[in-house]
Structures are given as C-alpha cells and as structure tokens.
Amino acid sequence: MRILWSRSRSGALFTRQWSSRPGSEDGSQTGSRPGSQTGSRPGSQKGSRPGSQDGSRHGSEEGSRPGSQDGSGPPTLNPPEETGLARERRPSKTPGESSVFLFPGQGSQFVGMGRGLLKYPKVKEMFSAAEQILGYDLLSLCLRGPEEQLMRTVHCQPAVFVTSLAAVERLNHENPKAVETCVAAAGFSVGEFAALVFSGAMDFAQALYVVKVRAEAMQAASERAAGGMLSVLGRPQAQYRQACLQAQEHCRGLGLDRPVCNVATFLFPDGRVIAGHKQALDFLQQNSRRLHFARCSPLPVGGAFHTPLMESACEPLRDVLRQVEVRRPEINVYSNVDGKRYMHAGHVRRQLALQLVSPVKWEQTLHEVYERTQGRGFPHTYEVGPGRQLGAALQRCNLKAYRSYTHVDVVAPDNEE
User: Fold this and answer.
1) Which pLDDT tens digit goes with each residue over 369-385?
2) Which of 99, 218, 271, 350 lies deepest, with the highest CB count within 10 Å?
3) Catalytic residue among 189, 199, 222, 288
4) What is the largest CA-CA distance in the chain?
C-alpha cells in the first residue's frame, strides 16, 4: 500500500490518497497548490509541473516515477492526469501582499512539539504516514519523548521536517492568504527539505524517506568520529578562519591526523557555528577570550555537521536522491550551499548532497531573499516550525524585514483540541 500526497483543491496543504497499484482510480493525483483557480499553481498546467509538455514530471522518464513497489525503497507516486488547460499567468504582487516562509533545522526540536496541532486538516494523516515510512511512532516521540531519543540525529531530523509542515497546515487554517501568497522559501539544513516539499519540488512521502536516509547516514558518520559543534558570538576583531587553523594545529600536536575544524554555519554578522573534532572545539573554548569570542557554547548535536567529517554520508544521500522524483520549485527556494535560488531538478540534487559537507550560508541566504531597491517594502515572513532561531537571525541580519516577522508555533493550547 502506498501513500500519495498532493496539494488539495480544498485549500489544505496535503491530501493523502491510497493505492494498491499504479493507475488505480483512487490513486491518481488531483491536488493543487492553495490559491490556484484551476487546481494547479499559477503558471503551470493543471496536473503538470513547469517544463513538462505532456503531464510528466521532471526527473522521471515517460511520466513514470522512481521508487519501489514492494516497500523496500522510497514511496512510489502515480503521475498526475494529463489535461489541456491553458497556462495561467501569475499576478504580480507588491511586497506587502506576499510572504516568505523559513523552515528550521536540527536543534530546534523539543518534547511537546506538535501538541494541539492534530485538529488541523491533514496533520494526523501526515504523522500516520510518517509512522509507516519511518517504522516508529513519530507523533508519540514528538509529544512525549523521551528527550534523549528525540535529540538523536536519526529521530530529530524527521521530527522537525514533519512538524514544520504541520505548522504550515496550522497557518493555512488560520491565515490561508499567507500560504497562497508565498513567493519564496528557505530552510536551514534539513529544513531545506520542508521548503522543497512546500514549493512543489518534492512530494511529502518521498522527501520524508530521503530525510530518513540522510539522518541515518549522518548518525553513522557522527559515530565514526568524535566531533561536535560550537555556537560562537564573536567580537568585531574575531578571525574565525585563523581560530580554526590554530585549533587544527593544536590537534596535530596531539597526534590527530587530518584534524577538522571549520566554520559550519554563517548565521548573522559575528554569529558563527564552528564544527570539527572534539579536541579542536575544546581548544577554541579554552582560548575563547584570546580569540575574541564573546560567547562560545557547545550545541546539543551528535556530530560535526556541514564539515568533511560528514563525507561518508554524501553517497547514501546522493543514491536516494537519484531514486526519488525532484522537480523545479514552483516558488523561489534558496540553497544553503551558496544562498542562491534552485534552478532545476539536477541543481537541487547536487546541492542537497553538497550541503552535508559545506557550511550553511544562512546570512548570505537572508541577504538574497530580502535584497530590494531603496524604498521597496518587505514581504511578511513566517517561521514555520519549532523554535524561533531563524527569527532571531533575521533580526540581526535585517531589522526592517524582521518587523514583518511572525512565528507559527508548533504547540497549540490543549483546550482548543
């Protein structure tokens, strides 16, 4: 039995459809992105994606979809129905009429996230689908923990992914115009997958399977080397690259071969995350005052993500990305690797694999998203998912854009259930 997800005509973000065989009557995709008048996102033919001439999708041949029929691989999805409807021109919007979505990454998770969200359309079905794909009860883990299990890479990445898209469902219920007018999205690390699902570039079930493989590969890579990550707030005179080089030299003196210590995230001006071998991070903490670090604290993660220590995780991710369908995003989605927009399906696949061993250029991404001419207004920004870290980074990068920021919480009052 396979799970099919699509945009629904009724306005909800996802619709689950069940099918026991390809091409069954109840297994075809008929959904659309909210805000469309004809059951498709403006600018595309109903049932087809940009660049498709015959109703087939990018990344598949002759309209077929990659994936296993026997449950051993990614969930398989049926191609959409072919129609002859004319393309719609998407109406232009002033910045104040449009929105931007930011999706958080690993580290934002907490026990209790998702509480109160099951009343919103499709959220319960999303977690039910996740249980079948992952093989464990993700909803129970999010709501009740235990915390030490939720914090593990293999669990928290799928948890943040699903909960963030559940937050989109909440926003769609409370403020559907924000979903309809979204023109751009960006996700932090694993949050990129949620952004790509929302953009129409990936389907929920297949993207979750990729996140599962990614998390397992990163967990395995972390167990091969004792690494970690430090959150650093530097003073103006701080030299982060030089600090990393000093830490590497210190590790060589300890006999460590090919030590790793790199900037793993550019958060905001003078805000960095540095990752690498544990000995290198110990050196940075012990010498933080001399290195002009105003604050230096370990992050509760299990590995040195976005550094060469994740190299062994790249091939499993590349392999599963070749198995699933990826399409050109229907709105602007920005890559962590260079802060630039994704242009086509192959670009998405390459950048997602490269992201594992490259620093997250979040500060650069925010500059790209909010760059505009003098006097032009800013869109409304929604952080959809657990935590408010991305809002805090936006406040430090662009105060004017932050003034139109809203956090969509992943916890709703129990008495509203």
Assistant:
1) 999 888 889 999 999 99
2) 218
3) 189
4) 69
